[in-house]
Amino acid sequence: MRRSKKENFSFLLRYLPPVFSSLAEKDIDGLCEIRLRADRAAVLIFSDRTEFLTSSGRLTGFYSEGLFTLSRQEIEDIFMKMCNYSVHSLTENIAEGFITLEGGCRIGVYGTAVVRDGKITSVRNIEGINIRVPAEYRGCAQPIYNRLFYSRIPNTVICGPPMSGKTTVLRDLSRLISDEGMKKVAVIDERSELSGGDLGFNTDILKNYPKAQGIGIAVRTLSPNVIICDEIGTLCEAQELCSLVNSGVKFIVTMHCSDLTELKRRPQFALLSDAGAAEACVVLNEKNFGIKRILINRN
């Protein structure tokens, strides 16, 4: 489902307290996150600043008395509503720290972890909710597409710190490769976040598939030219990519890091690089989808 920033915010209002509905359209320009913490002030993170919400529904850059806060019970109520009152069906995602709303709105959640045999099995007493407000920026990946993908498609890693726009860039790249490049694209959307935008008319979307399994299924059954997936975070996922590097399919993936030095220290990247799954690397700036650096392996 494609929605503008305004439409995404309006969608989120069904879960938020009424005070948020007083925010004007100009107030949400550049809004990236809404952070709700039990018994603490609500915080709105913009691309260029941080604001607080007053009890009367105004924005202020100053922390003071009279700011809007939510009790622990109110946080729990919002969380239950976001889960459509079916927490049990989302237990696995919640244990990993997130749920995803319709349209790709990812919600970070945390509280008291329930641990069994060294593994988080559930979370109780929800203490905080971090709402990412997605938006589609058509054309934000055009410079990357023109540089790397216009005539050929190299295996590519897109990296950057949190909030640098990796997922948004992936969405736009999928659209460009599908629509302009006329290539068959398979998107492995493990968290149902990538599919919140226009991914192109020639794109197959595998929602909620674990990345390692989804990659294998896509290669075997969908004959894609390109597989796109977000956040390669485990060695298992990197190994699955490596095992399929010479299968005739190209991969575009993302990783978290603040710069190229950090990226090279990650064992997942070392695996991909050694296997030829990192023919090109795009480093994003911290904000606004800016490109810090594009590296191409000529070997």
Overall description:
The chain is of the alpha/beta class and 299 residues long. It contains 9 helices and 14 strands. The strands form 2 sheets. The chain has a 7-stranded antiparallel β-sheet with strand order 4-3-2-1-7-6-5. It has a 7-stranded mixed β-sheet with strand order 10-9-11-12-8-13-14, with helices on both faces. Helix 7 (235-243) packs parallel to helix 9 (267-274). The longest helix has 14 residues, at 166-179. The protein is globular. The termini are far apart. The model has no long low-confidence stretch (mean pLDDT 88).
Main beta sheet, described? Answer: 7 strands, antiparallel
Q: Cα-atom Rg, whole angstroms?
A: 20 Å
Q: Which stretches are low in confidence, meaning pLDDT under 50 for 5 or more residues running?
A: none
Strand content: 25-35%
Average predicted local confidence, pLDDT: 88
Shape: globular
- Count of discrete alpha- or pi-helical segments spanning 4 or more residues: 9
Distance between the termini: 40 Å
Task: Label this structure with key terms.
seven-stranded antiparallel β-sheet, alpha/beta, globular, seven-stranded mixed β-sheet
Describe the SSE topology.
Elements: H1 5-12, E1 31-37, E2 43-46, E3 50-53, E4 59-60, H2 72-82, H3 91-95, E5 98-101, E6 105-116, E7 119-132, H4 142-149, E8 156-160, H5 166-179, E9 185-189, E10 203-207, H6 211-221, E11 226-229, H7 235-243, E12 250-256, H8 260-265, H9 267-274, E13 280-284, E14 291-296
Parallel strand pairs: 8-12, 8-13, 9-10, 9-11, 11-12
Antiparallel strand pairs: 1-2, 1-7, 2-3, 3-4, 5-6, 6-7, 13-14
